[in-house]
Amino acid sequence: MNETPTKSDPTLSLQLKNKLISLLKEVQCVKFGEFILASGKKSNYYVDIKKATTNPRVLKTAAQLIKSYLNDELNENLKIAGVELGSVPIATAVSIETEKDLIIIRKKAKDYGTKNKIEGTLNENDKVIVVEDVTTTGGSVAKAVDEIRKNGGVVEKVFVIVDRMEGAKENLKNMDVELIPLVNVDELKD
Question: Does CATH place domain 10-189 in 3.40.640.10?
Answer without folding.
Answer: no
